[in-house]
UniProtKB/TrEMBL annotation:
It comes from the Bacteria. This is CU044_5270 family protein. Residues 169-228 are annotated as: Disordered. It comes from Allokutzneria multivorans. InterPro entries: CU044_5270-like.
Length: 358
């Protein structure tokens, strides 16, 4: 019974981190305090609020399924990004279209390496919210066969806290309600990997070797295909028309124009977007109101590109591309003037599963 509950918790942790990466994990202390406040209220009010929240959560997690892509409201008419941003994105789209990457041949594997550096918050000394922040890096390597239905491989490594704010590394590692993904490695057909496991409590980021995960005897209820968890069939049905694709991106998590940037970054960071769709995605991003050009010599993971930027009152979102080649390099998020997270993506083709391209 407890094993099933733990597996469910791990799947929820993994899904929430993937679909809502900007939200810090909730501590057990804060959860229990909030639960007590909810239970203290009138039963009818509690039931009404719970229903609304579950409906909102379900809408957010489900994102867009294949059935909803064709039923979107294509209205709008909002002004596009400024001319400089449009020029950079158009150049990248043209380069992507003219320099198509050769698809993997039978026996070859598409290699995707994603490095994420992110700040997380934990609770110390009985506080009601996060009061200790630490930066951790997660490296994910994936090998995808030319036939997606065959066996994939994924390898995940997670570091100890690399930097801290308002606490020491030892305090961050020994926070009573901390949670961190355990390094792992697995193979699975069609990319149906087992859910990762999480270490909770003291020992955050402890050095351990990768754990080999095997499929559970109980099949997990998988999330439907989406921009965040694409399949070839899902990607093939997405519109290539920039205006229609802009609406898909915008409405994938909310109805605000800035959500199109978040969705585009999440989709491109999978490394699984085909060239024609990536070009269309760049043109769709050019329709986000307020998009500007940030740093034209932006170095991320040793690769230099141009940052396309959306600026909000407390948050800045960067999408970093190489306009000469059309390559997607990565993304960066700044919250309240401080770097919150960044990720870099490298793709290639290799002849052997488990080995990086030379």
């Amino acid at each position: 019974m407890h094993d099933n509950a733990d597996r469910t918790d791990d799947r929820v942790d993994s899904a929430v981190r993937e679909l809502a990466p900007d939200v810090p994990p909730m501590s057990q202390h804060a959860f229990e305090a909030g639960r007590a406040r909810v239970l203290a209220g009138p039963a009818a009010q509690q039931q009404q609020r719970t229903s609304r929240r579950w409906l909102a959560a379900a809408a957010g997690v489900t994102a867009l399924t294949l059935g909803t892509v064709g039923a979107l409201n294509l209205g709008g008419g909002a002004p596009p990004a400024n001319a400089e941003a449009v020029a950079v994105l158009t150049s990248a789209a043209d380069a992507t279209t003219s320099t198509k990457a050769a698809p993997g041949e039978p026996g070859q594997f598409r290699y995707i390496k994603k490095v994420e550096s992110k700040w997380f918050g934990v609770v110390l000394n009985g506080a009601m919210s996060a009061n200790c922040w630490y930066r951790q890096e997660r490296t994910e390597e994936t090998w995808i066969p030319a036939d997606w239905k065959q066996e994939w491989q994924r390898r995940v490594a997670v570091t100890e806290p690399l930097e801290t704010r308002s606490c020491t590394a030892e305090q961050a590692k020994n926070a009573p309600y901390g949670s961190t993904e355990i390094p792992w490695e697995a193979r699975a057909k069609n990319g149906d990997f087992p859910p990762p496991k999480f270490r909770r409590g003291p020992g955050l980021g402890a050095k351990v070797g990768p754990e080999t995960l095997t499929p559970s005897s109980e099949p997990a209820k998988e999330l439907p295909p989406s921009l965040y968890r694409p399949t070839p069939e899902y990607l093939a049905k997405l519109p290539r028309d920039p205006q229609r694709l802009f609406v898909v991106l915008r409405d994938s998590t909310c109805l605000a124009d800035a959500c199109a940037m978040h969705a585009a970054r999440s989709a491109l960071s999978t490394g699984q977007i085909p060239d024609d769709l990536r070009a269309a995605m760049y043109r769709a991003v050019a329709k986000i109101p307020g998009a500007t050009v940030g740093n034209r010599q932006d170095n991320l993971g040793g690769r230099v590109g141009t940052a396309i930027r959306i600026t909000e009152p407390s948050r800045t979102l960067d999408l970093i591309i190489d306009p000469k080649t059309g390559d997607y390099i990565g993304d960066r998020t700044v919250l309240d003037g401080e770097l919150h997270e960044f990720s870099s993506v490298v793709t290639g083709v290799t002849d052997a599963i488990g080995t990086a391209p030379r």
